[in-house]
Design goal:
Number of strands: 5
Strand order of the largest sheet: 2-1-3-4-5
CATH superfamily: Response regulator
Low-confidence stretches: none
Helix content: 25-40%
Number of helices: 5
Largest sheet: 5 strands, parallel
Strand content: 15-25%
Structural class: alpha/beta
Length: 125
Amino acid sequence: MTSALRTLVAAGEAPVRQVLTWLLEQDPRFVVVGSVGRGEEAAGWSGPIEAAVVDLAVPGLDAFATVRALREHHRGVTVLIVATVDGPYFRAAASEAGAAGYVDRSRAEANPVELLAALCLRPDA
């Protein structure tokens, strides 16, 4: 990879948004080009992006609809959903919406940045 992946962060709670943005900015593989607090802001993002992190609890347009909109308007974008809940329903809904991955950020071993990097850099991405 020759340049950092332009990344959008969408989370309703400012502290969650700030932490995700900070974590991504510590990794040279990513550059955060936007940080928004509502699903419709992410869905309407007009700048170029290669990756997005969407919190499951993003207000406004729900996370799954946000993922669908991002995938429709930004061909090839890799979207990771982060959440504080887990289970087969949420993972299936995320996959059905087009998210490349889903991570329960409340688990100690959760590393959304490494997971996003792995998803973005896989050969079939």
